[in-house]
Amino acid sequence: DGGITQSPKYLFRKEGQNVTLSCEQNLNHDAMYWYRQDPGQGLRLIYYSQIVNDFQKGDIAEGYSVSREKKESFPLTVTSAQKNPTAFYLCASSTRQSDSNQPQHFGDGTRLSIL
Amino acid sequence: ILNVEQSPQSLHVQEGDSTNFTCSFPSSNFYALHWYRWETAKSPEALFVMTLNGDEKKKGRISATLNTKEGYSYLYIKGSQPEDSATYLCAFDLTTDSWGKLQFGAGTQVVVTP
User: Fold this and answer.
1) Which of B51, B95, B99 should be substituted to probe chain A, the one whose Cβ sees the most A Cβ atoms within 10 Å?
2) What CA–CA distance (Å, rounded) separates B11 from A47?
3) pLDDT tens-place string over residues A30-78
4) Short-list B5, B23, B34, B21, CA closest to B84
5) A90 → chain B, closest CA residue
6) Which residues of A sit within 8 Å Cβ distance of B?
7) B34 vs A50, A103, A108: nearest CB
8) Angle CA A112–A28–B91, to nearest 5
């Protein structure tokens, strides 16, 4: 089945450690997105990528990094510079909006906690 | 960052009753308004993408309307069922090119009790 796979489902980070969250899609979508959810808040955009080898910062990019070497993959690294990384992270993908205003498709998420 | 407001934050509905809730967004530079349903332990699922003022969309017992001039959208659930229990998210499309950069509201949590 086509969809978005995020791994791992749960992740623990030690102080000063970088961790990488995986996101893979087989929907042949050009655009991919990373969101963060905190209790009582809406999803906030961290980074997005419209095409391979290109990506842009979202509203809360500080302390995060991404890469887009393949169309199918958009990994997110939470660096030690992110001082409050405990949150739920969602990955999404979509086609170009000019193609009939398509919605975004989401993975199941990764919950990151600090040890 | 433009604010997208959803109200109420949560609501409890008796099975069989109908309900509705609101999403408010900046009315200027409107491109599209998305609605998603997010059930516990699942991924958010797209319900509607609405672009035209006066647009009405329907999916089963769920429908939505859009008023871009005043900046709001209503989502209606007719004859609520326990399986309608979820958090409903709306998102305002900030796109100035062809790509969906969305600003999400905090959601309305709906609990339908038998």
Assistant:
1) B99
2) 32
3) 999 999 999 888 899 999 998 999 999 999 999 999 999 999 999 999 9
4) B21
5) B43
6) 4, 31, 33, 35, 40-45, 48, 50, 58-59, 90, 94, 96-98, 101-109
7) A103
8) 55
CA dist., res. A64 & res. A78, Å (int): 5
Picking from A94, A103, A107, the nearest residue to B43 by CB comes out as A107
Strand B10-14 versus strand B108-113 pairing type = parallel
Name the average pLDDT for chain B. 91
Give whole-number Cα distances, B86 to A58, A78, B12, B13, B50, in Å: 27, 29, 11, 12, 21
Residue B62's nearest CA partner among B46, B73, B78, B51 is: B78
Q: Cα separation of A45 and B91, whole Å?
A: 12
